[in-house]
Structure of isochorismate synthase:
Amino acid sequence: MPHASADLLAAYTPGAALIATPERTLLGQGVLEAADDPAHVPAMLDAVQASGRAPDPVAMGAIPFAPGAPARLVVPAALRTAGPAADAPAPPEGERRPLPGPWRAEAVPEPETHRKAVAEVLAALGGGAGTPLDKVVLARCLRMTGPGPVDAGQVLRNLAWRDPSGFTFAVDLPPRGVPGPRTFVGASPELLLSKRGGTVVSNPLAGSRPRSADPTKDQQNAVELLASAKDRREHALVVDAVADGLRPYCTGVEAPAEPELVRTATMWHLSTRVTGTLADRRTPSVELAAALHPTPAVCGTPTGAARAAIAEVEPFDRGFYTGAVGYTRADGDGEWAVAIRCADIAGDTLDLFAGGGIVDGSDPAEELAETSAKLRTLLLALGVNQRL
Ligand SMILES: C=C(O[C@@H]1C=C(C(=O)O)C=C[C@H]1O)C(=O)O
């Protein structure tokens, strides 16, 4: 009897790994093997399969933003799978429980400092003599501290119920000095890479406007985004990089010329579905995801210079934010989401992150407002209905 997605969400407890995608829901419990380097995952899966410990093993987990920083990818001892969360009936109202407050919010950096940092990056993009920078994605962090240990399972379930069509996840992370489990939780709308057989798909998002509770304003925001030359340029940089990243592995890569609009509960985005046909259908999805990461949707263009700008300007370590979260099977098939709209939970704190792409024509105040809108995905899952 197949499991229902809602049962797996209900069964999740910290220490386990739950990944719900538009295709399926996976709950991994216990650890057979673990790898801290994505390049070691295919051999790890082969070894587990060859030893007979799991007939159809899966590796699941997270890859950090920084190159060379340790990833957390595990082959669970027990794996339960179900259909997508979007197929599950909406949960009873009483089960969408806000987390107990009160909450203390600490912004790193202060919002005004972020606005100034955007202005500095803009100046470096535009006028600077010989600067090669076209786009930099700048992020900020919001540390929320509650009255007691944060219930990561409830955050996960609240996220899944609000936005069941994206990639909702909770994966166990190596401890960061706080007693108890550390969990990376999020609801990302962005597919970094999926592979099934000989077909790969990536669905970059870039170019954003907040949703509005007023339906007229909401439509205006969407129409304005689709018509914005600045956002289309920002978007095209990402689509080109993704197509270029897939080409060495593919006999053909296709992307429509025009972006589409997609929406989450809190944001509008420009979206392009890029598809490719693999030259070797055994190419592991984790290798393809690592090859695309980080796309200019979360880092910038060119990658190296944008990464250096981020390291200079952002006053915190991104950790797993803007990395990748997903799973891969021994035959290489798998799905990897861009790790955004997420929080790093340990003890009584959650570190929330949100960023946005800065290109020529960006406006610092609008960029700050965009990060506030993106933070709402996690804040609403806590039950905090405030712009921070
Ligand atoms: C960086 C984030 O989002 C990314 C940046 C976007 C943008 O700049 O328009 C849009 C979607 C994401 O690719 C985030 O949510 O923190």
Notes: Residues 171 and 256 are 34 Å apart (CA to CA).
